[in-house]
Amino acid sequence: MTLEELDKKYVLHTYARDYTNFVKGIGSTLYDEKGRDYIDFASGIAVNSVGHGNEKLVNAICEQAKNIIHISNLQVIEPQAKLAQKIVELSGYDMGVFFANSGAEANEGAIKIARKYGETRFDNKRYKVITLEHSFHGRTITTVKATGQESFHTPNFSPYPAGFSYEKNIKDVYKAIDDETVAVLIELVQGEGGVQPFEKEEIQKLAAHLKEKGVLLIVDEVQTGVYRTGEFLASNLYEIEPDIITLAKGLGGGVPIGAVMTKHKDVFAPGDHGSTFGGNYLSTAAGLAVLDILSELYDNGSLHEALLYFEKKLQEIAAEYDNLFEKEVGLGLMRGLRAKSAEIQGNVLKNALEEGVIVLKAGRNTVRFLPSLTITKDEIDEGFKRFEKAISTL
Ligand SMILES: *Cc1c(COP(=O)(O)O)cnc(C)c1O
Question: Which of 50, 118, 224, 289 has its CB 3.0 to 4.6 Å from that of 54, i.e. a possible disulfide?
Fold first, then answer.
């Protein structure tokens, strides 16, 4: 059986998969089984934040694995406590952290905090959560319902939990708030929805309004967090102080981890929430190494240089190929080219892989770029050389 046959026979068909078999990665270059190399502008959907085969991360994982991989959360876990401290310190917010294993699970935790807050802090029960159109918050039954895309709310998985609604724009959120609203859950840059950043002023105004109304602001930073936008959190870039923030993708450098952090540290009591795997030795040791690597890149200015260089390259492409692309969108190293049609988007993706550069799609017509945050100038140059070759014939 070929690998493709094996996969099709035994793995459930939930993905429209490509069957290139990657066997090794170094930095932002991936190699398939035939030895062909690809520049990785996707980093496993913003997960491989420090690239492939990063020595410091690999060593941290190996060293931790030799000692303890996992014990339960019934015991204290040293790297977990240290990672929580590091996340809180880098964020600049006075918060506490709960560790989960994925983005959806982090958002579930955020919703549970909000719901308990709404149950216990007011005379009436507050439970409604407002989200936005084109958002993406995960694949569990609750987080698909929180996701503001009708196609996710198929009757196949109904009934969904009550208390979720989504609004077309931020300005509609104001009108939607009532005395049962407990929280507004948003991404500051909608990732899956099309790499669409919100205006800073609009977000600051909303944050101030929610504070005044006693409605919690939950920011889903599963994709934007951990330096993706150039700051540790997009919330730092937008200069807001959310009540609850969720993280996941880039935090473990590829080891599954999610986190929910909140300034309402006394909402959860023992027994309210938990996870068997969440925050275990392996994932939090990985997270510590990732944050060491990235905070150094941030402090010495090389992260900023990389994102300026990437942005410049992308703007040049957008300007030169205005027959294919409307504009360049995004923030930091979370970028996109808005294609003039879904067909162009599809062809760009297909040709790019053939030319040896991996990019992603987002929304209906956006070609998405989520390179590793450690990507070098040479890798950026090579990737765009291949990308240009891929689109020059379209
Ligand atoms: C990817 C993503 C999620 C879901 O994360 P999983 O780890 O796949 O559960 C949630 N929110 C946002 C903004 C994401 O980008």
Answer: 50
Average pLDDT, whole number, for the chain? 97
- pLDDT 10s digits, 43-79: 999 999 999 999 999 999 999 999 999 999 999 999 9
Query: With bands split at pLDDT 50, 70 and 90, how would you rate the model's confidence at 107?
Result: very high
Q: Which domains does the chain have, with CATH numbers?
A: 56-299 (3.40.640.10), 301-371 (3.90.1150.10)
Look at the chain and count its residues: 394
For 332, other C-beta atoms within 10 Å of its C-beta total 23
- pLDDT confidence of residue 368: 98
Measured in Å, residue 138 CA sits from the centre of ligand 1 at 5
* Side chain identity, residue 102: S
Residue 363 corresponds to which tokens in the numbers above? Answer: 């929304």
Query: What is the distance of C-alpha 43 from the center of its chain?
Result: 11
192 lines ligand 1 (CB under 6 A): yes
Question: Ligand 1 in contact with 256 (CB < 6 A)?
Answer: no
Distance CA 193, CA 300 (A): 32
Q: Answer yes or no: is the C-beta of 103 below 6 A from any ligand 1 atom.
A: yes
Q: What is the pTM of this model?
A: 0.98
What whole-number distance in Å separates Cα of residue 197 and Cα of residue 189? 4
Is 108's C-beta closer than 6 angstroms to any atom of ligand 1?
A: no
